[in-house]
Amino acid sequence: MSGLLAVLVVVLIFIVIFQISKASEYVSILKGEKKARQQSNRINGYLLIAFLVLGLIGVYYCNDLLKGKILGESASVQGEGVDTLIYVTLAITGIVFVVTQILLFWFAFKYQEKEGQQAFYFPHNNKLEVIWTVIPAIALTVLVAFGLKHWFQLTSDAPKDAAIVEITGKQFNWLIRYPGKDGQLGRRDFKKIDEAASNPLGMDWDDQLGKDDFMATEVHLVVNKPVKFVIGSRDVIHDVGLPHFRMKMDAVPGIPTTLWFTPKYTTKEMREKTGNPDFTYEIACDQMCGVGHYSMRGVIVVETQEEYDAWVIKQPLQYALAHPAAAPASPDAPKADSTQKTVAANTK
Length: 348
Description:
Blueprint: H1 2-31, H2 33-66, H3 79-110, H4 126-155, E1 163-170, E2 173-178, E3 214-216, E4 219-222, E5 227-233, E6 238-242, E7 247-251, E8 257-261, H5 267-274, E9 281-285, E10 297-303, H6 305-313, H7 318-322
Parallel strand pairs: 1-5, 4-10
Antiparallel strand pairs: 1-2, 2-3, 5-8, 6-7, 6-9, 9-10
Helix pairs in contact: 1-2, 2-3, 3-4
């Protein structure tokens, strides 16, 4: 019933608009086309000024209302530079937006059709062309240069003491792997992938480096210690989105990608900062990857070195899960701040 009523209201609105337009046509015929057009332009001019004022008030109000509901302070050291770049970009584009909108609506009001006023045809001006081409080009070049600077930093070689975490996307969840005491990830072969045999990544058990690797359902990181993510995909293109750390990186089948950063706050500290006792660092898939895309939510826990070591000790080796009769039950705890060598997962 309510749906039918809504349809009737919409139909009535269209009928009213149609009748008003027809009445306007009759008025223009009675008054004369030119006079009616000028009157219409004058009304539209005042409406445009009102729209400008109300629009700018609305923009300010929305900014004031929502500014405390964004992500807040960056949770990584490298993310601070990204935030600065975002704020500079918003400042530049915000100034341009306000100036151009004021000029747009003011010109529409001031230069409306009037008696004794005729528009000046202005076909070309080299000076203006240079100004509005060169200035935006310089501004964009500077912004792109700073963006590339941060990009090269995040994708450069990680510090030698960086921990290693491998993140592999698959429809529709994340597979997390850690190196063992040797600090190196073992070799992988996609032909060896076997979920039933506890080998979802296709780890090559002939490679001794992989026998102390272990997998987890969460990413655990040590606060104030750099970490390098080795990112890949088992099927389609995914994207490791780290909004609180201000980073993201595509997960591409067969082509490992990397990024590194240093978390600044533990999960407990962020819960205190945000006032949210349920706060959790997340991994979001920022690439539409299929019907189950919405479910690709990973959890990151940032903790102290002691908490991390205690957690690692409890994790079973993946080799032990795949070969329960031939392997020990638990790994030697690797130190997140010990020297780690970057070994990207090999795929054939």
